[in-house]
Amino acid sequence: MNSSTGSPTLARSIDQPPPPFLREIQSDVVDIRVLELLTSRLCHEISGPIAAINNGVELLAEDDLDFQQDALALVGDSARRASSRLQFYRFAYGFSCDNAMVGTAPQDLANLFFAETRIVCDYGDSVRGLPLASQKLACNLLLVGAEILSRGGSLALSDGPSGLDLQAIGEAAFLSPEASAALMLAAPVSALTSRIIQPYFTGLLAGALGWRLSHRAESQGVRLTAVALTG
Question: Any idea where the domains of the chain sit in the sequence?
Fold first, then answer.
């Protein structure tokens, strides 16, 4: 029990055997449902900017010069948002830890991703020097934090003696019991939905990389922590 918050830290002890759902990690096989839900989430994230681009293209057909200028601004803005989201998700979901980083650095991807949202992201200097695999986990933690902050707020990501630390602060910041179970891999694949696939994938990734996740409620938000189980 955390005396300062009165809330327990929800974490699986390393002395306990892994839950059955970790067989997916141990066998290097991810259930097809996980892939389907991740794909659905990605499509949802980019469908808005793409739809706005289509609307802007239609407005370009108007004879009114003001309409055309607005259309060009809409297309440009939406294209930037679609690009920033795709690049961020490409790293968070698709980056192979065996490869070198090519292109935009993770912290810049995160800053671009959150630039036009209601969430302020502080990607700490201490995280920027971590191996890319650890930063991939960090970026997935940011996505979990974004879902915690449904009304906006701030995300502060840092690395210290206790491991990766993400503090999500904002109005009505909340990690649902379903999302908590998914994050800790205590939910069966059959119970996953598009709302909790991100926490589940983050839990899978943490386990595959040899990290243990925990979280606790705080007075102004939620804190997520990832601790490496190996040196």
Answer: 10-38+106-228
Nearest Cα neighbor of 142 from 163, 174, 120 is 120
pLDDT digits (tens, 9 = 90+) for 104-149: 999 999 999 999 899 999 999 999 999 999 999 999 999 999 999 9
Q: Please state, in angstroms and rounded to a whole number, the distance separating the CA atoms of residues 178 and 100.
A: 35
Can you name the CATH fold of 10-38+106-228?
Answer: Heat Shock Protein 90 (3.30.565)
Is this model's pTM higher than 0.70 or not? yes
DSSP letter at 175 equals -
Q: Helix (H) and strand (E) counts for the chain?
A: 8, 6
Strands of 153-160's sheet in order across: 10-11, 211-217, 221-228, 163-169, 153-160, 119-123
On whether the CB atoms of residues 119 and 147 are closer than 8 A, the answer is no
Query: CA triplet 141, 142, 146: central angle to 5 degrees?
Result: 120
Give the three-class secondary structure for 63. coil
User: What residue type is assigned to position 198 of the chain?
Assistant: Q
